[in-house]
Amino acid sequence: MEHLSTPARPRPAIAAMSSSYARLPEHFFARLDPTPVATPRLIKFNRPLAAELGLDVGGLDEAALAAVFAGNLIPDGAEPIAQAYAGHQFGHFVPQLGDGRAILLGEVRDVNGRLRDIQLKGSGRTPFSRAGDGRAALGPVLREYLISEAMYALGIPATRALAAVTTGEPVYREQRLPGAILTRVAASHVRVGTFEYFAARGDGDAVRRLADYVIGRHYRELAQSRQPYLALLQAVIERHARLVALWMQVGFIHGVMNTDNTSLSGETIDFGPCAFMDAYDPATVFSSIDGRGRYAYANQAAAAQWNLARFAETLLPLLDPIPERALELANEAITGFTARFDAHWLTGMREKLGLATAEDGDGELVQALLEVMHLTAADFTLTFRGLADVASGAHHAAAGAPFAETGVFDEWILRWRSRLAREPREAAERAAAMRQVNPAFIPRNHRVEQAIEAAVEREDFLPFNDLLTVLSRPYEAQAAFAAYANPPAPGERVLQTFCGT
Ligand code: AMP
Ligand code: MG
User: Is the distance from CB of 134 to CB of 100 less than 8 angstroms?
Assistant: First the structure.
């Protein structure tokens, strides 16, 4: 009967794809292809990232690229799977989540020799979809594209966006919306929730297999360690302590720090209701589903520590055969998060203030600034960026909005200047260094919303593309885009953000 079947479209060979995750035991995932969509259309393709991944897409026209990144055309060597995981969501354990609307196509080795996952998000139902439709709406796809790429440009570990396509099919949320698919690139998609999935089933073998996989993929240097699983726990704690400090130093609020959104590689993952703070207030929350502020700006270190404690629990049997001893080791490691976070925070804040040396009072100096900022609802980004001008000699009252408005900064500036007097660097060198850690441009909520609205309401992708351009060089002045540095006008302020589901 073979001669009667429609010839399959040839699978494009875009890379030497492998699938190390699909070599793990079969109950780690489900094998299935993405569900094809009606009329894929390429919205955005990240060519620099494609080059970094070593993809060979020269022979593919736009229609072929759209077909590949919509899941209609499976690349050669791909072994599509949906991964199983569980997770604590807002403190409550859900024993089965999993890729309900994502398909991992496989992995490629990038030009730096690192293995990277290529995953379609919004690619149809899977055995993990529960009540969901397996799809994504265009708005959240563009949002993730913008913010994950902005994080990367800011120098913060994050998953990347390789492509965005529209599907030509509607999705139904509160309203009818255009459907879309995001191609996400990650160091891997293993989450704390992946460990919890097996631990909750009492599947110790699977936990060990997964831990070995993670060590082999992300922490190779630990394989020879005397206690590799304890070393793994400590290394993951270290990466997240640094990550959350980096987030907070650009005013980023993840918004949904559940354990299924806590990656083992230490990358920022899942850009649902995340947002950047404009006016500084440590209690800031944007997510519509975070009514109690569990994941508020200033709670993020504690939330990460809580998530890592859930990770530690899954590793207990691997840490020591004596349960009391295992618990002791885990507790010690988790308690150590605080000191690691504090150290990363202070190191980063010293850089933001232009301090190249360390003194005992620096923490208080940082705290005093944040208190003034809080009191005056100063814009987080403009304040730090403006300090670079002040550092290069300008009187602070002339250094822009946060400083000009009131006299409340006067005292702090004096204190800072007297601290700078004990610094070895020249003013110009210091100011230049400060501009490399204090961005001029962040994905401000109102700009993100405007870009999404133009795309969704009017199929106008110009604002999206402009914003992406500005955000690709966040530390450069970019005079032509100066308006993108501005905080929202009162009428533009975005007070709430929503999950993409
Ligand atoms: P998230 O809020 O994106 O972290 O997703 C939490 C869980 O819900 C994951 O297991 C997702 O795969 C699943 N999920 C989210 N949206 C959908 C959807 N539209 N269809 C099926 N599953 C979904
Ligand atoms: Mg998630």
Answer: yes
Tokens representing residue 366 in the block: 């940082």
41 and 128 together in one domain: yes
Does this model's pTM top 0.90? My answer is yes
- State the Cα–Cα distance between residues 471 and 498, nearest whole angstrom: 22
* Range(s) of the domain holding residue 265: 204-276+288-350
Q: Are 209 and 25 in contact, with CB atoms under 8 Å apart?
A: yes
Cβ of 189 less than 6 Å from ligand 1: no
Q: 131, 161, 189: which is the final residue of a domain?
A: 189
Looking at residue 409, the DSSP 8-state letter turns out to be: T
**Which of these, 233, 215, 459, 217, lies nearest to 330 by C-alpha position?**
233
Residue 290 annotated as catalytic: no
**Residue from 128, 103, 127 nearest 117 by CA:** 103
Report if residue 367 sits inside a domain. Answer: yes
Pick the closest to residue 258 from 269, 250, 249 (CA basis): 269
Ligand nearest to the CA of 128: 1
pLDDT for 121-168, tens place per residue? 999 999 999 999 999 999 999 999 999 999 999 999 999 999 999 999
Phi, psi of 418 (to 5 degrees): -70, -30
Q: How far is the CA of 261 from the centre of ligand 2 (A)?
A: 5
What is the chain's alpha carbon radius of gyration, rounded to the nearest angstrom? 24
Q: Do 130 and 100 touch, CB atoms closer than 8 A?
A: yes
Selecting among 33, 99, 133, 260, the annotated active-site residue is 260
Same domain, 170 and 235: no
Distance of CA 410 to the CA centre of its chain: 36
Residue pLDDT, tens place only, 427-472: 999 999 999 999 999 999 999 999 999 999 999 999 999 999 999 9
Q: Quote the CA–CA distance of 387 and 349 in Å, as a whole number.
A: 12
SS3 call for 164 = strand
